[in-house]
Design a protein that fits this description.
Elements: H1 15-25, E1 33-38, H2 45-57, E2 64-69, H3 79-95, H4 99-129, H5 134-146, H6 167-173, H7 186-204, E3 208-213, H8 220-231, E4 239-245, H9 247-257, H10 263-273, E5 276-279, H11 285-299, H12 304-319, H13 329-333, H14 341-360, H15 368-387, H16 394-407, H17 409-421, H18 427-433, H19 452-459, H20 471-480, H21 492-503, H22 510-518, H23 524-536, H24 548-557, H25 559-569, H26 576-587
Helix pairs in contact: 1-2, 3-4, 3-8, 4-6, 4-7, 8-9, 9-10, 11-12, 11-14, 15-16, 16-17, 21-22, 21-23, 21-24, 23-24, 23-25, 24-25
Domain KAP NTPase: 14-384
Protein name: ATPase
Pfam families: KAP_NTPase
């Protein structure tokens, strides 16, 4: 089995990206700097952060490297303070052993308490009054990015009342902390905070690198709160932030925090916060092949010396893939001192066959995390089969798991239905495997028509199912792994689209249009599968049934989704209005 955590070993030639980021953040003239490592869920952002940190450790210049996992503080009372306090704690620890430096670090840490108090004060007042907090808090962090060292302010505590008329109720509880304008002026406190930080970093004479990860997993409020805290440090000397994020997730989170934010404002917000975006490239066939081979080698516990040799050969091959063919499996294993080389070679050859379909399938797109989870599914089923005495080849299980992920829930249900009704040997499978051309569309079940190119590639995968009884394999799949478990893992953008389509009550919806634009097309099938599952739970479809118009919208937007929806709609109770929808969608073919 393979861990779902980020890797410190590069299997996808991400070292090149990590080295590029290292070059940016080690250039003193470029500091302060904020770098965004952008990519979809599971694309490898966390691994790139780890590789960047490892690369910096090899530099002659010393760095203070701070790792902040936003998801760890998901339930924290103040997400902004969590990041500030994490940075302060690392700086205090780094100052241990030097009294003067430690005094400066402790002074900085104390100032964080005041900054945190200002945020909580505004939020507490708003909670009492039922008012939104965004005005005061955003002003607070706006001052942070605009403040200067010699700034004098006449801003009074009463100015925070822009968010609430109930601030007095909170201020009574803060007696002794906030007594007078001269003792507590928010802009002045921010200015002093920045001065303290600047003085501390000058004393350290070391750059500070802060890695912010797992924003993808946070609720919208926590996502933006963490980014707002980063604004406190923008334009501060000798500081770099490396933020791993799915940009679509951030854009979707902004309206939750900044009410009424337009699409342009969402883009502007990200552009102002992140100076240099670095996009994680989508793995191609060569990268997926290398990734599978290294995961297999890892699982087979190949000795360290030979493991490193395999990785280095594949990495070298990937670097020059633009001008030469990929290293063959036989050349890769040449001179390797390994036991059972023949068995390892066979597994590597299977990986080669899988790479093409995993890289090009619209429902996988070479996503490293999805690939790893597929392999874990295969391992789990193999172990279950062994315990039950099922003589199932691992390649058979692999082929079925790939079908499930790439074709979706409805198509997979149809496959197992054919296996059941035809004694484990569907004639359609044999026809697919023994036909050099794509089958006529009218031969295929409705549930399979949305991705015929995939079916053609999948049917060529080994082993051939023709003449094989698949009853045990189908039983294993349905009884031990919930149908659609792999396919249900979708990004935040796709989740938002699903929720929006279920809520859609009319045919035309600008909100749904916007959500469709923000969702990768490879996730449309997963969303449609979830919509159809939602509709199947309703016995009697009506026009006002939640999800009907959303499914119609998605079906009209994507041919694959149209076929999936049509297959489900034709099995629903006959309705005149539904018949019109079916005719309309069929006419769009």
């Amino acid at each position: 089995m393979w861990s779902d955590k980020e890797s410190k070993i590069d299997f996808l030639n991400f070292n090149e990206i990590a080295e590029s980021i290292k070059d940016l953040i080690t250039e003193r003239e470029l500091m302060p700097i904020s770098v965004g490592v952008f990519g979809d869920w599971g694309a490898g952002k966390s691994t790139i952060l780890e590789l960047t940190a490892n690369a910096l450790e090899k530099e002659e210049q010393e760095y203070i490297q701070i790792h902040f996992d936003a998801w760890t503080f998901q339930g924290y009372d103040d997400a902004k303070a969590a990041l500030l306090e994490t940075i302060a704690a690392h700086l205090v620890k780094a100052a241990e052993g030097d009294e003067k430096l430690l005094a400066k670090a402790l002074d900085f840490a104390k100032r964080i308490d005041k900054v945190r108090f200002m945020g909580l004060m505004a939020e507490g007042a708003a909670t009492i009054s039922g008012m939104p907090t965004f005005g005061a808090i955003q002003s607070l962090f706006g001052w942070a990015s605009d403040a200067t060292d010699d700034e004098e302010s006449t801003f009074e505590l009463s100015d925070l009342q822009k968010d609430t008329k109930e601030l007095g109720k909170v201020s009574k509880k803060t007696k002794g902390i906030v007594k007078a304008k001269k003792r507590f002026s928010p802009p002045k406190e921010i200015s002093e905070f920045r001065k303290s930080y600047t003085s501390l970093l000058k004393a350290f004479d070391k750059p500070v690198i802060v890695y912010v990860d797992n924003l993808d997993r946070c609720l919208p409020e926590n996502t933006i709160s963490t980014l707002e805290a980063i604004r406190l440090f923008l334009f501060m000397p000798n500081t770099a932030f490396v933020v791993a994020a799915d940009p679509d997730m951030i854009r979707l989170a902004i309206p939750h925090f900044h009410k009424g934010a337009s699409a342009r404002h969402q883009t502007d917000y990200l552009d102002k916060l992140i100076q240099i975006p670095v996009h994680v490239p989508k793995p191609g066939v060569a990268e997926v092949r290398a990734y599978l081979i290294m995961l297999i080698a890892q699982d087979r516990k190949v000795p360290e010396k030979e493991f490193v040799r395999l990785r280095e050969r594949l990495e070298e091959s990937l670097k020059f893939s633009w001008k030469q063919a990929q290293i063959s499996v036989d050349d890769l294993l040449e001179e390797c001192e390994l036991d059972a080389v023949a068995e390892l070679r066979e597994e590597f050859k299977i990986a080669e066959q899988m790479a093409l379909i995993l890289a090009e399938s619209a429902n996988i797109n070479g996503n490293p995390r999805i690939v790893k989870r597929l392999l874990n599914q295969i391992k789990m089923r193999k172990r279950t089969a062994h315990r039950r005495g099922m003589q199932l080849d691992e390649r058979t299980i692999t082929k079925l798991v790939i079908f499930e992920r790439c074709m979706g829930v409805q198509a997979t249900n149809k496959l197992y239905e054919l296996i059941d009704t035809e004694s484990g040997q569907p004639a359609l499978i044999a026809e697919l495997e023994n036909n050099d051309k794509e089958l006529e569309e009218n031969v295929l079940p409705d549930e399979w028509k949305h991705d015929q190119p995939f079916l053609a590639k999948w049917s060529k995968l080994q082993p051939k199912f023709t003449g094989i009884d698949l009853t045990a394999a189908a039983y294993l799949s349905r009884q031990n792994i919930p149908m659609g478990a792999v396919n249900s893992v979708i990004s935040g953008a796709a989740q938002a689209l699903l929720e929006g389509l279920i809520k859609q009550k009319i045919k035309g919806s600008k909100a749904s249009d916007a959500l469709l634009e923000k969702t990768a097309s490879e996730e449309y099938v997963s969303v449609m599968d979830a919509l159809v599952d939602h509709l199947r739970q309703i016995e009697d479809w009506q026009r006002e049934t939640p999800g009907i118009y959303g499914a119609w919208k998605l079906a009209g937007h994507d041919d694959r989704c149209r076929d999936i929806f049509l297959a489900a709609a034709k099995k629903a109770p006959k309705k005149r209005w539904l018949s019109l929808i079916i005719k309309e969608l069929e006419g769009a073919k």
